[in-house]
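Supplementary Methods S3. Complex input for the EPZ-bound model.
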Amino acid sequence: MDKLLIEGGTPLRGTVRISGAKNAALPILFATLLHDGPSRIHNLPRLADIRTTTVLLIELGVSVSTKEDRSAILDASGVHSVDAPYDLVRRMRASVLCLGPLLARFGRARVSLPGGCAIGTRPIDQHLRALEAMGADIDLKAGYIEARSPKGGRLTGGSFVFDLVTVGGTEQAMMAAALADGTVVLENCAREPEIGDLADALRSMGAQITGDGTSVITIEGVEKLGPMDHTVIADRIEAGTYMAAAALTHGDVLLMGARMEHLDAVISKMARAGVEVRREGDGLRVKHHGELHAVDLDTQPYPGFPTDMQAQFMALMTRATGSSTITEAVFENRFMHVPELTRMGADIRTRGNTAFVRGVPELSGASVMATDLRASATLVIAGLAARGTTEVRRIYHLDRGYESIEEKLSALGANVTRVSQ
Ligand code: EPZ
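Predicted complex, serialized as structure tokens:
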């Protein structure tokens, strides 16, 4: 397993190109199943999760050709299976998003239950209830979801109110509804920018979708969808991660491609902490010198502060003047970075889903363990600001969601090397 060695203390300076959004690209790749021909996607990030998704799509019979320019052509005319096996789905939970498209196009699907992960049990009950509201018949057998549409034909129109805001549930239902025989009204939907990007990709195929970005999404099902041609939006969480790294190292960085409107909650928290972020060209300039102010934080569904930035913001707060209270309200176990940050000298106590962070004058390098994607990013951020050397192990977590992280950081002046073991 690879590890990263980081020599801390160098301010990050320069320009970093933000890659396509992982959490937009994943559902969009699955949406290509909805058309029995070729689709083209641009600005795909080069990530392990993208590769895992293409492996599953190829297993189903999709032909995938990726190009040097970060685009790919996926032809779903040859799909010969509606069975997503456990050994593929367990590698990446988002694989469960193939369920809705397979069911909508073929009238049936057999998809392994994804199981939980480090940050929580991650149930998918809302995905299944939404499909049932469109006439699907769902059975759970031996760890698999067995889904069938009425008489093996099209799903029906219907309406569904999500019990809670779920990004994946909203995406699953939108994709299934696109080919339904009728109108589907979804309420209490997630409003993340990735939902809007999936809706744009579906509309490029001829889907009739309105209301994405609000809590009520209406889909007029159509009989057939055409080829997708879509460019994936920039990754707001990757941008937020580099923003935090620039702030913690007292740097000055241009985040090329980052969009202010996708990061409002993060930028306003950064401003409260004393970090200046402003538009520059087609990106965002973040620079920070001097002290950081302690700021309290509650994670919320969009447009609230994103749970995927909670760990990165906590790294900032470990060096702030004063104490901050951070509450993780979306997932039940998303503080695994805390013991590792503590090993680097941070002063953090947790009680349930709340962390109490007291700023310390400095962090010190240590050997730490990555446990999940965003926790690993946070250890890198802390290592960049710490005195001495930090060794971050199990960085396969990082490779799932951050394209070429050591190259991007080195180009900003960081002293980072990947050691393959
Ligand atoms: C997406 O996960 C993202 N992943 C996550 O990013 C992100 O943290 C999360 O949304 C919240 O923004 C992708 O888009 C691939 P949810 P998702 O359904 O869809 C509960 C990262 O680091 N829930 O919005 O799985 C669930 O347990 C990853 O890039 C149900 O109870 O998240 C959680 O507590 C991590 N039943 C809450 O809802 C359901 O049927 C929000 O989950 C579905 C979800």
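The chain has a mean pLDDT of 96. Residues 23, 26, 94, 120, 122-127, 164, 166-169, 190, 307-308, 330-331, 373-374, 401 surround EPZ (CB under 6 Å).
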